Automatic annotation (TrEMBL):
<comment type="similarity">
    <text>Belongs to the enoyl-CoA hydratase/isomerase family.</text>
</comment>
<dbReference type="InterPro" id="IPR029045">
    <property type="entry name" value="ClpP/crotonase-like_dom_sf"/>
</dbReference>
<dbReference type="GO" id="GO:0010124">
    <property type="term" value="P:phenylacetate catabolic process"/>
</dbReference>
<protein>
    <submittedName>
        <fullName>2-(1,2-epoxy-1,2-dihydrophenyl)acetyl-CoA isomerase</fullName>
        <ecNumber>5.3.3.18</ecNumber>
    </submittedName>
</protein>
<dbReference type="GO" id="GO:0016853">
    <property type="term" value="F:isomerase activity"/>
</dbReference>
<dbReference type="InterPro" id="IPR001753">
    <property type="entry name" value="Enoyl-CoA_hydra/iso"/>
</dbReference>
<dbReference type="InterPro" id="IPR011968">
    <property type="entry name" value="PaaB1"/>
</dbReference>
<dbReference type="InterPro" id="IPR014748">
    <property type="entry name" value="Enoyl-CoA_hydra_C"/>
</dbReference>
<keyword id="KW-0413">Isomerase</keyword>
<dbReference type="Pfam" id="PF00378">
    <property type="entry name" value="ECH_1"/>
</dbReference>
Length: 262
């Protein structure tokens, strides 16, 4: 296929695959645009209850395609802030604000912005053979695509700085043990595990998931008082939903909840 992003529409969820395997799915502008379009479709489509993001071939994503950054082609002072503003930052914001769960199935190496786009997802499952590399320092850059945020919040400064300054490849098992990702699984189980999660979410209370994401994201900067107020507000909203009625009725009637009945 010539497409840099494959979008498979499954029953209730989507699988989005970065598809430039010869370059370990490094981002060029076309891949950014196709990924943006796929995510926008998922966001708007009420039939899509979850997203699985993964990569084709042996890597997940090697970050920015550096062949598009050849100094002999682009000159001495490229404005990388502009690419962040145009492509990476909107991508990270879109994933964070997606009102349904985004699962990243990290099938192989995730380097540079590729690692940090993975970490922007709500649930990260990695193949045991995968590695997370903050490759930026090797080319004299800083971690972007949220890297300094995820690493610091999820690991603390000591590990964040060591990973960022050394570009040490963090193995999937260690990433899971350190709390950077949800789980590391056997390579041949990765997609089964990721799609099983997505199938569960596809049958679940989508709006409650969106509110849960919102609350957890706010927690990293809120005081306890502010967070308790936010929980009150969001729970009020959740409690007025048909999904909540269905969830409680199903519990009391000892049957599975059917959130897709409408
Ligand atoms: O510029 C801006 O807009 C600012 C934003 C920046 C965001 C960023 O992500 S900056 C960081 C960019 N990424 C990197 O620096 C990582 C570069 N890649 C690597 O260090 C290594 O490829 C890996 C550690 C990821 C994997 O190593 P390995 O040995 O498994 O594979 P390989 O042989 O290095 O790569 C396989 C092929 O993919 C190879 O091509 P070839 O020789 O077979 O034709 C390699 O050149 C290509 N490739 C890998 N990463 C990139 C890439 N080509 C272009 N850009 C890449 N990032």
């Amino acid at each position: 296929s010539d497409e840099t992003v494959l979008h498979e529409r499954k029953d209730g969820y989507s699988v989005i695959t970065l598809n430039r395997p010869d370059r370990l799915n490094a981002f060029n502008e076309v891949q950014h645009k196709e990924l943006r379009a796929a995510l926008a479709e998922c966001q708007e489509n009420a039939d899509c209850g979850a997203i699985v993001l993964t990569g084709a071939g042996r890597g997940f994503c090697a970050g920015q395609d550096l062949s598009d950054r050849d100094p002999t082609l682009i000159g001495d002072s490229p404005d990388l802030g502009k690419t962040l503003e145009t492509f990476y930052n909107p991508l990270v914001r879109t994933i964070r604000a997606m009102p349904k769960p985004v699962i990243c199935a990290v099938n192989g190496v995730a380097a540079g912005a590729g690692a940090n786009v993975a970490l922007a997802c709500d649930i990260v499952i990695a193949a045991k053979s995968a590695k997370f590399i903050q490759a930026f320092s090797k080319i004299a850059l800083i971690p972007d695509a949220g890297g300094t945020y995820w690493l610091t919040r999820q690991l603390g400064e000591a590990r964040a700085k060591a990973l960022a300054l050394t570009a040490h490849p963090l193995a999937a098992d260690d990433a899971a043990a350190w709390g950077l990702i949800w789980r590391a699984v056997e390579d041949d189980r990765l997609m089964a595990e990721a799609t099983a999660l997505a199938e569960g979410f596809a049958r679940g209370p989508t709006h409650a998931y969106a509110l849960t994401k919102k609350a957890i994201h706010a927690a990293s900067t809120n005081s306890l008082d502010d967070q308790l107020d936010l929980e009150r507000q969001l729970q009020r909203e959740a409690g007025m939903s048909d999904d909540y009625k269905e969830g409680v009725a199903a519990f009391l009637q000892k049957r599975p909840a059917d959130y897709r009945r409408k």
